[in-house]
Amino acid sequence: PCGEQPLPPFGACLLGSINLARLVRDPFEDSAAIDLDDLATLVATSVRMLDNAIDVSKYPLPAQEHEAKAKRRLGLGITGLADALIMCGVRYDTDKGRDLAKSWVHALSRAAYLASTELAAEKGAFPLYDSTKYLATEGIQSLDEDVQAAIAKHGIRNALVTSVAPTGTISLFADNVSSGLEPVFSFSYQRAVLMPDGTRREEEVTDYAYRLFRQLKGEDAPLPSSFMDSQGMLPADHVRMQAAIQSHIDSAVSKTINVPVDTPFDEFKTLYVQAYDAGCKGCTTFRPNDVTGSVLALAKSDKAAGEPELPFETPVPKQADQLDAGAVVYMTKPLDRPGVLPGSTYKVHWPESDHAIYITINDIIQDSRRRPFEIFLNSKNMEHYAWTMALTRMISAVFRRGGDVSFVVEELKAVFDPRGGQWVDGRYVPSLLAAIGGVIEEHLVNIGFSEPTEAAEAAEAEALKVVGGGGEHVHANSQFSRCPKCSLPSLVHQEGCDTCTSCGYSKCS
Question: Which DSSP state fits 178?
Answer without folding.
Answer: P
